[in-house]
Sequence to fold (745 residues):
Amino acid sequence: MIYYIPNNPPHLTSSNFALAESGSLELKNGISKGSKRNCSHWRRNKHGNLVYIQAAEPANVPMKNHLPAREDQLLALQNTSEFDVLIIGGGATGSGCALDAVTRGLKTALVERDDFSSGTSSRSTKLIHGGVRYLQKAIMKLDFEQYKMVKEALHERANLLEIAPHLSSPLPIMLPVYKWWQLPYYWVGIKLYDLVAGSQCLKSSYVLSKSRALELFPMLQKDRLVGAIVYYDGQHNDARMNLAIALTAARYGAATANYTEVVHLLKKTDPKSGKERVCGAHCRDVLTGQEFDVKAKCVINATGPFTDSVRKMDDQEVANICQPSAGVHIVMPGYYSPDNMGLLDPATSDGRVIFFLPWEKMTVAGTTDTPTDITPHPIPKEEDINFILNEVRNYLSCDVEVRRGDVLAAWSGIRPLVTDPNSKDTQSISRNHIVAVSDSGLVTIAGGKWTTYRSMAQDTIDAAVQAHNLMAGSSKTVGLLLQGAKDWSPTLYIRLVQDYGLESEVAQHLASTYGDKAFEVAKIAQVTGKRWPIVGKRLVSEFPYIEAEVIYGVKEYACTVVDMISRRTRLAFLNVQAADEALPRIVDIMGKELNWSEQRKKEELAAAKKFLYYEMGYKAKSEQLTDSSEISLVPSDIERYKKRFHMFDKENKGFITILDVQRVLESISIQIDENTLHDILNEVDLNKNGQVELDEFLQLMSAIQKGYVSGSRLAVLMKTAEENLHQRVVIPVDRSGGGLPHSPN
Fold:
């Protein structure tokens, strides 16, 4: 296990502190200088903390230098006579099971019917945490099980920050206090959280005065604020973390394949007991339609919300155990929160907990918790988006106008809460994960949380080894570095800038996404033809994603455009409009890499647009401006906007086209390419007839005044042209990240 040491421990005094860091000090367990990785030792981790690593025994299998191609993985699935374990599900838990099994020396296979992390694992709050609210319940209800769950999660938090430092980091989270009596109450609770973490505490929590809290979080509601408490948890890039686990398993020799679904389970009769036993699965390559059998001594069901569908493949009569709950999150511009300080609302209007966190230079807020149906394509609901916005308004200063139009993306994830099938009370929801083995030998892992994926995987493989008499030792995954972590350092990005001529922002992004594999991406980056940057063409101007990542993403088993915009890059989760604009270029690059036909390219483009429209909140965003949008403008505003409109519609046609806009811009010596103008008008063209009518323009301006729409390039362009018709100035046409460079009114 990993112990984070905020201060010198009793047996590590200041006099020998340097010796411990250098490895020269012999510690209590006899580990000294020269010990190999995966042996217990003190060392300074990559976040700067001194940690004691009591690691598992080294993995029994070597790690491959190169990642096998998906085609080779499919061949391994088809040609291997029998695997020790076959894992169904490529989320965090399933991928964790594959890594745990393969590093024990078990012959391991994993199949996922969609993409790795395509479900719940990519749609989380992005936190690695023990759960402050669970500790509160444990104390208030004297619930020892809840306490153990928090303790386990805090241990796993420490491990995850250590094994993937490029994808994770500690994050301070502020809990604002608005009543004096709450200050000692919350302080005791947070200090207990630190105490439970023990030596694995990231940093000690502390109390802030009102003035200091506002200094660190200036957009906070200051009326009635009496102070704040700051504590630390972890944050990560969830989809990339999931992918790193799966790719690490593949490098250790697991046969892993996405877009490979289980059609039905294979069974055979046990000659000793006469009972039917699960012995594999009949699978289908979703992309080609090819079907084949995968034989295995043990099959593991790690399918999250779809747990019951696989259990029913084994036994049609088995009762459902999954109780799905939908959690909606929204993404807003980065200026809604400080760069390195989150916010926790511990008691919302309906008793939920809301987090408000900086993430990837944006702000993510969530989550809701409502019962839902199980679906592979959950859709964020407008009422959930508005609930989160209302809660955000309660905690932000009245000087900050929280606008519906500032929601850049929204998503819904299905949390697979479960009832324990081994419990007599089948109606009770299990707060922790459960591992169940059916009469036919199917091992099911369900429930739990992202942070504890590794311990869940360990428990699952332990159960599989015991139930199927597999020859394997103990788990090797504590302290086992994930892909990209080995040679990563906080200054790695500087080498990328110096050696390849990448922009600093792009280099930092590559280092924090790929770790030491960032150099592989940089090597294939295209020359820009500019003085600076030398290499690295961006997919969209305001995000650091570059075209080389699309090529590299294909090597990371990306098979569709949706894989690329949502899980290899996180563009869809950060800004749906930016993702939509990047689609044509991504389709072209992937088409070339994967030899797509023109028809396949069209299908991929359509599928990606559908994904953005329904699953990532584009539909909810676009519905803020519709044909039936009410025009609620005062007469003076209507006249002012009509005058602005007719400046472009000189012929009084009642609508404007690209030619009208070009004519006005040319009159003030401004040139914008036709494709950009087409995109700008298309944002407002509600009936998609290639022109913007007066009513559409008035609806736009009305929606902007209400805060339903923001970042309209047409509104900014038309106002700027009106103000500067006789002056020559540059008109901004880039998206502003949700807000506007100046008022479009």
In short: The first strand starts at residue 2 and ends at 5.
